[in-house]
Design goal:
The chain is an alpha+beta fold. The chain has a single domain (3-164), classed as 7,8-Dihydro-6-hydroxymethylpterin-pyrophosphokinase HPPK (Alpha-Beta Plaits, 2-Layer Sandwich), CATH 3.30.70. It is 32% helix and 21% strand. The protein contains 6 helices and 6 strands, in the order αβαβββαβαααβ. The chain has helices at 3-6, 20-33, 71-84, 125-134, 147-152, 156-160, and strands at 9-15, 37-41, 45-47, 58-66, 99-105, 162-164. The chain is globular.
Length: 165
């Protein structure tokens, strides 16, 4: 595994309320002004809301970033940006203006208040497909499975229900 891959940090950003694309672009801008450098950005992917597909569709991207922050400070910054963009406290998985998730932080394995890599990311089409677009050789730090294998284990309906925009 190449050295730079081990040191990669990936964020997922999603929105399903308001102007979704603008919400994501505003999140990216706020990351930048908080000393978080965007190295790569995936295309936009539109997918059904989960677990309630009757909610508005999500728009998602994955970013590869660089920062001097540790994982806990980084996730705190992300939560502050979500609030600044109008995210309210609401039930889990309800529609939101902005959701920023820390997907992977330099292949670290952390359990506690913050869990890394992001739990369930290995089964989510809206994380795996944009992540694959910007990192073809990414490997799950715990499962030790490469991203191609994770994508191939998604259901056909998961593959068909997401589209790159």
């Amino acid at each position: 595994m190449s050295e730079d891959l081990v040191n990669s940090i990936f964020l997922g950003i999603g929105s399903n309320l308001g102007n979704r694309r603008q919400n994501i672009e505003r999140a990216k801008f706020n990351l930048i002004i908080n000393n978080i450098k965007i190295l790569k950005c995936s295309s936009y992917y539109e997918s059904l809301s989960w677990p309630n597909s009757n909610n508005p569709k999500f728009l998602n991207i994955v970013l590869e970033i660089d920062t001097n922050f540790n994982p806990l400070v980084l996730i705190q910054k992300c939560k502050e940006i979500e609030k600044k963009l109008g995210r309210k406290k609401s039930p889990k998985n309800s529609p939101r203006v902005c959701d920023i998730d820390l997907i992977d932080f330099k292949s670290k394995k952390i359990a506690g208040d913050l869990i890394l890599p992001h739990p369930r990311m290995d089964t989510r089409n809206f994380v795996l497909l944009p992540l694959f677009e910007i990192s073809k050789v990414w490997k799950h730090p715990i499962l030790k499975v490469n991203i191609r294998k994770l994508i191939s284990s998604l259901s056909n309906s998961d593959i068909r229900s997401i589209k790159q925009i």
